[in-house]
Amino acid sequence: MKRRLIMAGIAVAIACPAAFAGVGVWSGQGPYGGYIYDLLQNPLSASTLYTSTRSGIFKSTDSGAHWAPAMDGIVGSVGYGYPVAIDAQAPNTLYAVDSNGHLYRTTDGAANWTQTGYVLPPVNGIGQINKVIDAPGSTTRLYVATVANGLLVSNDSGATFSPLNGSGANVLPAGVPIQWLTVDPSNANDLIAGTGAYDAGPGPNAPSIFRSTDGGAHWSGVMTVAAPNYSYNPSDPSCMGATPPPEICTISTETLYASVAEVGFGNGNEVYSWVTDPYYGIAYGIYSSPDRGATWNAVSTATSNVQYFTTTLKPDASVAGGVYAGGYFGLMHSTDGGVNFSSVASAANGLSPNGVDVATASRFAFSGSTYWLATQEAGLFISTNSGTSWTASNSGIDATNIRALGLVPNGAAPRILAGYGDAFRPSPGMYAGTDAGDGNVSWANSNNSLRAYQIRAIAVDPTTTGSAASTVVYAGGRSEQSVSIAPRNGGIYKSTDGGSTWTTIDHGGAVGGLPQRFAPSPRSVFLGTVRTIALDTHSCTGSPCTPLQTVYATSNGCYLVTSGPQAGFCGSSSQPGSYQYRIFKSTDAGNTWANSDIGIPQSFIGNPPNYYDGESLLVVPLVIDPTNSQILYAGTSDSFDATHVTTPTLQTGIFKSIDGGTHWNPVNTGLPTYPGSPTVLGVLTLAIDPLDGNTLWATLIDINSASGAPGHIYKTTDGGAHWTEPGSGLTSADIRAFLVDHPSAANPAVLYAAGGGTSGNPGGVFKSYDAGTTWHSESIGLPADAALALALDKSGPTPKLYAGTSSGVWEITETADTDMDGVSDAQEDLGPNGGDSNLDGTFDKFQAYVTYVPPHTSARPAAPLTANNDFVVALPKPAVGATTCLQTQDVQAKSAAANGPDPIADNLDFRYDVDLVQFEVLNCPSTTVKITYPNFTFGTGYTFRFYGPSTPGDDGSIAWYDFASHATQLDAHTWQLTLTKGAFGSYRPASTGSILFQGGPAYSDRIFGNGFN
Which CATH number do you get for residue 110? Predict the structure, then answer.
């Protein structure tokens, strides 16, 4: 029987992954681009491309001009470290590995993905499959190169695998990562495998490249790369990111072995590879073979940049000695086997995210005169003239990681500043967006003279907002960390024209500037990453009172030497001195700076020889009392290796200053600590009430837990003397952004909190109307993985909330929601019986246990369902005095097609005539829920299905499941579900106290009990 693709949604037609269009629903706003991990090209259709990014897989069918998500059916994330591959003989067949270790396959060009059945679970959160490799000449054979299981082969399209590590004395080394595998395109039995970095212990260096000429039955080592035995002394922060030769780094005896990054066949019998040291992020150079991999030689590359800073290599089979090298230098080409290179892509011909720095290449492809270059952090670039000129082409790639937001007043709509976060290579740094008011934001780079690779903080001077052109904005972040690649700076920047142009204000180590490194002569200013900027709103001068003068910033800081020839410079902690500039202050609008962290404890570098027991104190949030600018609060975290530190020793937590930042003292009473330790859990955010300086909120989490320990929000009403944890209804553990809106002293503060999560335990944006006592989710349509920054625009008639996420900036219009269920009053008023869906005489918008979702256009399939897919979700009416199961929230439609085909048997899938329903029931041990579709009739052949984890909270077990034993069909329109917290049928683990469900009615042709169709 033929497989009937009932659910074949067209992924490339999706504008954004919102659940459904409507009032009160989050929508993606761009900007587009980000870190492109992989680039695949259909070998039979050069105009069809795939990219793997931080936000998953995207597809283009027009040579990269436009992109759309192509992830339907994939549960976990597919990004860095999780490979994708394409079948050269059947290029509509692709393979992908997700963060849960599942292997997926698509046979329709990424429209639908299904699990092959093979799983290699991650270890400590690290993926165990390094690469998936297509076997030439076969549509069912493929290989996977693994971290700990060697090389595996499948002959059934990835359903099962068996080892292919050789036999006897001719084997791949056991327990060694296999980083790369390449199959000779002219002989499928010739395999070349490259190892990942491993320490073989004392003795001669081990081979790095192995070759088999009999399909993997036997292997022999054919190339050995001797890795240098340099290392850095962890007590010397100057050595972080240093490249050979180290500047003042202590040489250790540790020997690190090379990692074979890529192997590729070129012209004739040529094979090329490049080798890297992943621990230090530098390349050892290019290696070549003249005889299809039998023998190898190091290439004496004349271009030093290629020697050390290569990140990708692609042989050019069209010319003898042809090879492309991409890296920190952009893209270069050689016609003499890699000895000499000429530039193909650089900042000068368009390969730049900011007009100055060249983008760092990650993958390269070409067809005729059209070249595609994927980059780290800067998105995708295209050249249609063989590299003469390049332009960015990212339309639709929602993969920008936005860690900071700022709003600059600009007439009817604010100018939205969005900072690109977590980048260590050239990125756009800062974007500026204009909200047209129709749900669309147009974006442009706003990084003129901004010498930053990432932005983590944006602060707008409110005394200068008469016009966008005169608004003063401060930004904090990080410049490039390696002095060999680009000039470093202190990570603090200023604009006097609303973010259009920028100036670096660390002042280069001059008097009053931030300190420089000493290595052994003065080098650039570098304090790591600036994470918070706070402006003293009482520090302006003149009449009118403008601009503000006092600015605080937090950063990694540096070890400031206090005596000897390096006095006054950042250097080694083996000398007299201390860690400083973790908080620094300016009283003249950034013209001069001074250290301001006296009383913040010193980091502990650990004990020799390996310093594994070190503890590093980091200052992240800082807030200023709005009524007394001499009072400040700073939040700290202790970062350590939990496998070597069982009881941390640093006094961390929240510190308070009552003298304008000159001295700091801990105020931690009531905050959670590690058992038997003074170390408070990591403080991620701080927020202070703008009308009451004694009221603050802090979010905390164990940042050293690999398992994702639960987070907390604590509150003080006495200036930090005592802290309590009052909130309920907050299901996201990892709160990264916090916003306080308190326009009137007559009402409690309104709070917003944004947090990350996982597929099995999603995060979101939460809102509290009572100063944090209770919380309600406001997350319909928002991606589940991360919300990292928040900004609230109240300039228009209806407030708008913006969230910076790992998928760009998202926006929602704040609308009236009387029962706080996440669905607007306007939508619920459209329900049956004039907005009284359950016919009890009370409108749904006044009942937190009844929610109506009106007819809507489904995100998938392409044919819209508008007339018959509305629904009502209702809990039993709570008894008087009840305290549990009172509230549904985030009731929304979810596309069944987005979850991939739901198989029955005999190559049949379940059919979904209406969208799935997703909802959450707060503070609820168990309950029944009625789901009514008033305009759709369910006849014979329908059953109820659940899409979610079989074990609550477990991403790896998310799939389609039969839910018929928990669902009763009451009539032709209504189903009743029985749900229990922490049990099958809920995403959330029991510890959250809530039930999160997704599922719906599905139709099956197998309607008879005996199994006949």
Answer: 2.130.10.10
